[in-house]
Amino acid sequence: MALIxxxxxxxxxxxxxxxxxxxxxxxxxxETGEFVAVMGPSGSGKSTFMNIIGxxxxxxxxxxxxxxxxxxxxxxxxxxxxxxxxxxxxFQQFNLLDRVDALxxxxxxxxxxxxDRAGRREKAIAKLKRVGLGERIHHRPTQLxxxxxxxxxxxxxxxNDPVLLLADEPxxxxxxxxxLAIMKLFQELHREGTTVMVxxxxxxxxxxxxxxxRFLDGKVVSDTxxxxxxxxxxxxxxxAASAAQDAKDAAxxxxxxxxxxxx
Length: 263
Ligand SMILES: Nc1ncnc2c1ncn2[C@@H]1O[C@H](COP(=O)(O)OP(=O)(O)OP(=O)(O)O)[C@@H](O)[C@H]1O
Ligand SMILES: [Mg+2]
Fold this sequence. Notes:
Bound molecules: adenosine-5'-triphosphate, magnesium ion
Shape: globular
Order of helices and strands: EEEHEEHEHHHEHEHEEH
Number of helices: 8
Oligomer: single chain
Low-confidence stretches: none
Distance between the termini: 77 Å
Mean pLDDT: 94
């Protein structure tokens, strides 16, 4: 059974009397355990698609079955229930609450799911450790780097053990090395069995997926499989290159000092 199966999905927006077809007949199947990158120019419908797949929005027409359950016709409340049980969502701008610390942010979805307090805390700490933030659980978002904030958002997305992890440009606000670290984490979660779908504008990021789906004008215009690049290796290479550059800079500085001292 496919994890995601859509048939002729459309999403229409009406704005000032004009109709925008943000999605225009999308039929796609994603099996459990895939790692899919979603690409396409700005305005091509990527976020609209992700929001429907993530049960944050409903299609105007068409069908969407998630793990065999038809969800396109569910009420808003029922849809929120499905989302809470099955889906983790990560956004470009992290969408964390600034008033509470990392732990509080990660606990939040469990509050909605009605988990007890001690269980919530234990699970949130475990997920923060999982993303490498065990030492930062009492930092607020403003006291964390961008990459650390995105890790908090990923821990929050993981807290109800979703089968499906969706990320809409998760590295869009991060530098290249931090982006690699985030993609390494996604690949690890994928290897542990989570189905992952990531929207990105960057071909370098799409390289880490097994499949690339391209959108244009609300339609899927290509859908190809590839051998994923290993993000752990890419990160190690980037770190080695940066260390080599640092060593070169230090040597150049030392040579300059020596020359100055001799003059
Ligand atoms: N709430 C809305 N009301 C009206 N039109 C909308 C709304 N949300 C999106 N659209 C339109 O739907 C189309 C698809 O938007 P969408 O946000 O899915 O694009 P995208 O591929 O995610 O673009 P980007 O790469 O810039 O994030 C665009 O033409 C956009 O203007
Ligand atoms: Mg978008």
